[in-house]
Design goal:
Two copies of one chain form a homodimer.
Chain A: H1 3-15, H2 46-52, H3 57-65, H4 71-89, E1 92-95, H5 97-114, E2 125-129, H6 156-163, E3 167-172, E4 184-185, E5 189-190, E6 192-193, E7 196-200, H7 206-213, E8 219-224, H8 230-235, E9 239-242, E10 266-271, H9 274-286, H10 303-306, E11 319-322, H11 333-348, E12 352-355, H12 361-372, H13 378-385, H14 405-427, H15 430-433, E13 441-445, H16 461-469, E14 472-480, H17 497-505, E15 515-522, H18 527-546
Parallel strand pairs in A: 2-3, 2-8, 11-12, 11-13
Antiparallel strand pairs in A: 1-3, 4-5, 6-7, 8-10, 9-10, 9-14, 13-15, 14-15
Amino acid sequence: MTWQEKAAGKRARLAALIPHDLKLPTLPGPDVLDVTTYPLDSVLSPRDLEITDTADVAVLLERMSTGVWTATEVTSAYYKRALVAHQLVNCLTEIFIDQAMVRAKELDEHFKSTGKTVGPLHGLPISLKDQIDVKGVELTMGYVGWIGNVSKENSVCAQLLLDQGAVLYVRTNIPQALMFGESRNNVFGTTSNPFNRNLTCGGSSGGEGALIALKGSPLGVGSDLGGSIRVPAAFQGLYGLRGSYHRVPYAGSTNSMEGQEAIPSVLGPISCSVGGLKIFMKAMADAQPWDADPLALRLPWNEGAYRLGDHGGEGGRLCFAVLWDDGRCKPMPPYARALRETKAALEAAGHTVIDWVPYESETGGKLLGDIYNADGGHDISLACALSGEPRMGWILDEHAKHLSTYEYWQLCRAKNAFTKKHLEHWVNTVSATGTGRPVDAIIVPAGSTAPQPHGKAQYIYYTAFANLCDYVASVFPVTACDPAVDAQLPAHAFRSEADRMVYEMYEPETYRGAPISLQCVGRKGEEEAVIRMTEIIDAALKTKTKK
Amino acid sequence: MTWQEKAAGKRARLAALIPHDLKLPTLPGPDVLDVTTYPLDSVLSPRDLEITDTADVAVLLERMSTGVWTATEVTSAYYKRALVAHQLVNCLTEIFIDQAMVRAKELDEHFKSTGKTVGPLHGLPISLKDQIDVKGVELTMGYVGWIGNVSKENSVCAQLLLDQGAVLYVRTNIPQALMFGESRNNVFGTTSNPFNRNLTCGGSSGGEGALIALKGSPLGVGSDLGGSIRVPAAFQGLYGLRGSYHRVPYAGSTNSMEGQEAIPSVLGPISCSVGGLKIFMKAMADAQPWDADPLALRLPWNEGAYRLGDHGGEGGRLCFAVLWDDGRCKPMPPYARALRETKAALEAAGHTVIDWVPYESETGGKLLGDIYNADGGHDISLACALSGEPRMGWILDEHAKHLSTYEYWQLCRAKNAFTKKHLEHWVNTVSATGTGRPVDAIIVPAGSTAPQPHGKAQYIYYTAFANLCDYVASVFPVTACDPAVDAQLPAHAFRSEADRMVYEMYEPETYRGAPISLQCVGRKGEEEAVIRMTEIIDAALKTKTKK
């Protein structure tokens, strides 16, 4: 069998898992770009729609914990909508709804017999990026050569989610090797952006972004090595969180370039509601991942930190700093508008907003690229060689030199010297904030580009600097591209090839309606505080919109 | 100049820093093995002796914070005794007492004018391993090629110690590249064990061990990559602590094989009193190292954890497990006696003591060795090549292959798989403890050998498994080798070359009077709980001795 035949076989098996009664009678034609409003009432009941239209994860949980909805009907509603979403944007890689329904029934029986929930995530359907192992479910991570690879054990993440009451039911699409900001591979093809199918859903957790935007999941788990949670969250107008290294347990999940620990990839949530971020992180921390993952930090949920104990306390005046341009690559025009709107909203809410002075983006970006490419692509080449499938993507350099261990150590050393300087740069802002503290968080574009047309590259340092420095970074939605106000600007003096590329890629009509999101970036280990600050920013933006 | 001439020049400059009035009129002859009781009254005043004989760091601090002693007189007493210690066992590498006395005077003036201490370490002289940078002080780390290298900035560790009120005054000897368990290099030569100068002080923080044992310092900072804090603490009957990765800030200090982050070396305290461990760790955590070190964890001192919140609470029954033999290499006979005595003391204090089942020591030991040797010794070869000095030591393999980055990543991956299994092994002890918790801590020999004669190798896995798994491990003294009771045993079936080596190295008379110490090993991130449990064990041993 050729690799193409193997991949086609896998896709056919996946398609066969969609029951006949969940197949859309007519699929939207290629001219239908926005499928978020595509009518679903031919396959979903009003009850299914009511459940899955719930915009707040806390409300979903509350309805199940009070017996208003059962886990079975919530699971059923979400898996149906997930299978429909897949027909619209090609977002799924694995479907295991039989396992999910058995699990949901167990939860309902427990609730019926004890009157109690199993845990804080009781009944919540949670979708998973196609690298988080679930016992008995095939895991290909988009590699043709991995077709047939069935996980023997739950990853720690999957197990702890189950322990806390969650229901696992689908996994979602990713780019080859998880190593570029789209979601396209030789097994499952390309996932599209539900708001405009000519555009990418982003990546690498792009299937999650597309699925959650289409309400096929209220909360998903992605991973982030350079923006892989945040880019898809941003490109679909969702909320996402990249916590610090080893806060959410990674053990037992699969990854590309495993053993690369200079910049560890982290798992984290993407959700339709900002509350979803807190619910996930709190449930995960309270599940004591350090009992199962040897690298997980012994850090229970810290309510004092969430109450902004290190930031003047709840209700105090915060000082944010805005990163308008990192000095290397100007973000597309809608980002400047989103930053202005957010700054105004925060000021209206009584906070201070100053400018963030970018710190050596070129040096930081080069360090990231060199570390990503340190094995000269050997890991990915081996995985592709299993089937003969071609390599794809635009982050890894096919001509990168395979470094020796000593050379790799020098990179790690340079990284630590750089991040020390970056931290000093942050701490030194204490003189400019007026709060007696350094900047509480940085407001940063979630990328240089709006969700771009398929097959185009991005400049990733707006998200990736947080991976390099291990800063905690959330994504929150602000606006959408509007050709009426987001006109192209006159060309500026380009500081890099990426600067030119991003400038030339912008053409307002192409991006009409595409979500534009920002990041709230806090210091290493500040998951709780960043979630709270994201809630504060989100509330400020919503208050301003209402006025 | 040859490397020998350069090294001799450096040693001469160091010797010249010892004032004439601090030179011992007669040095003990080579037949004087135990120099801990060598008379010092020819160079130290009764007041100097009274101060430096203070066995408890808390008492020292209390006397300064209440004005009984000044920082100046305490600093002066300790530096004098340090310079004397150096004449007995060759433990120092850098002497910067002028800087120290300026600092001490500042502290005294602050105290005099405000009535307050500068911080929790007010006036405490702290010695540093020869890798912790102090601004303006030469740092060679024992490499001839680094002679003349003066630090431009304080390391974060040194700076935070100063911020907390400490006085820095000397640095101490180490093995070449910090990579074997003695303290010998081509610049400074060999440091001896003050209890028996035919024996090693251990390493790599061996100068610290020897200096503190001779009361030339109440507390020192070492580093630990395989036992380098614990071995010298153990070999001198002191207390030491290896915390988890990134709890004590390493940034700005120098290291060999920098960039090796698979098993990060950690800094930590060695002290004459168990209280010194807490004082150091609390002061360091409360100094917020995360504001200066990009890898430091945001973890203030956790008093609840110190009160054993995760171990049944203060005053509860604990369950310890004893590691008698790791299945690869039998410790020398005095260790079995020390373990028996400690088990009996803990049982007498109402705690439970079960046996620890060793977990795949051969696999773990091989992973450690492979990671240490991953660069094929390139880092060390480059440092030696600067001067032409020869390599030395017995941990790094001169014929090790220099791995590619991909090969190195596979090692890191194997390490994470192994430590996950090791953690499961620990967590599964819950069924055997009777407390409802897994084993609270493991009691482990601090090495396979008692402090061995100079130039002999050790088997290091008794300490190094904690580095591999990132377990927190303290050292506490138990007894001393006593030929009357610690007879050689009949040969057993050797499980490894190390097993034979350690067996054949034992001959009771050689080790007469040598300190024998054990470790208290807790889980990753349990610095506070391990310190408390060490205090509990120490008290139990002292109670038993009194009876």
